[in-house]
Write a structure and sequence with these properties.
Number of strands of chain A: 11
Distance between the termini of chain A: 36 Å
Order of helices and strands of chain A: EEEEEEEEEEE
Largest sheet of chain B: 6 strands, mixed
Structural class of chain B: mainly beta
Number of helices of chain B: 0
Low-confidence stretches of chain B: none
Distance between the termini of chain B: 39 Å
Largest sheet of chain A: 7 strands, mixed
Radius of gyration of chain B: 13 Å
Helix content of chain A: under 10%
Largest interface: A-B, 22 and 21 residues
Shape of chain B: globular
Number of helices of chain A: 0
Shape of chain A: globular
Number of strands of chain B: 12
Radius of gyration of chain A: 13 Å
Oligomer: heterodimer
Strand content of chain B: over 45%
Low-confidence stretches of chain A: none
Structural class of chain A: mainly beta
Order of helices and strands of chain B: EEEEEEEEEEEE
Strand content of chain A: over 45%
Helix content of chain B: under 10%
């Protein structure tokens, strides 16, 4: 089944404790991206990647890191999480960045 | 400046009736794509429908259609014969060529039995 998977689905952590949210797609998509969703703001892009070893900042990259060492994986790293990073995070992928994006199930993060 | 505007934070519709969710966008790029996504209470984002800026016909997918008015820069989603399972948040999004996908703030649709 073609899909985007994210882990964990739910995470509660404390300020300053490094965490990684994994994202993987099995559709051989070139383009992958991370969004955060906050009430009243819709989805805002954090980082995106057009291909392996190519990553770019989206609208709200501060406090986040990403890497794209393999085509299928695009982990999101929070080196020192803060409470304002409490949000719902989505990973998405598409064939080439211009086509429809397919989203993972979301990761709900709470930073205390 | 806001690129995608959804002016209806919440909408109600009676089951089996049609409903239109508004979306206006702002771009000077001649090439762009417009998307609608559904987000049920479970949280996942479900792609519904796509309209390309050069498409002559309005996009349709089952009970979903996109009322594309290019000159007015609007891309309203029409859901015909609403069902209880249509209750969800709906997001309009746009991608200009070579740019990120931008989302509106969303409209929460509630279908009443």
């Amino acid at each position: 089944e073609a899909q985007v998977t994210q882990n964990p689905r739910y995470l509660i952590t404390v300020t300053g404790k490094k965490l990684t949210v994994t994202c993987s797609q099995n559709m051989n998509h070139e383009y992958m991206s991370w969004y955060r969703q906050d009430p009243g703001l819709g989805l805002r892009q954090i980082y995106y990647s057009m291909n392996v070893e190519v990553t770019d900042k989206g609208d709200v990259p501060e406090g986040y890191k990403v890497s794209r060492k393999e085509k299928r994986n695009f982990p999101l790293i929070l080196e020192s999480p803060s409470p304002n990073q409490t949000s719902l995070y989505f990973c998405a992928s598409s064939l080439d960045g211009q086509e429809t994006q397919y989203f993972g199930p979301g990761t709900r993060l709470l930073v205390l | 400046a806001q690129k995608i505007t959804q002016t209806q934070p919440g909408m109600f519709v009676q089951e089996k009736e049609a409903v239109t969710l508004d979306c206006t966008y702002d771009t000077s790029d001649p090439s762009y794509g417009l998307f609608w996504y559904k987000q049920p209470s479970s949280g996942e984002m479900i792609f519904l429908i796509y309209q390309g800026s050069y498409d002559q016909q309005n996009a349709t997918e089952g009970r979903y259609s996109l009322n594309f008015q290019k000159a007015r820069k609007s891309a309203n989603l029409v859901i015909s014969a609403s069902q209880l399972g249509d209750s969800a948040m709906y997001f309009c999004a746009m991608r200009e060529e070579g740019d990120d996908m931008r989302f509106g703030a969303g409209t929460r649709l509630t279908v009443k039995p």
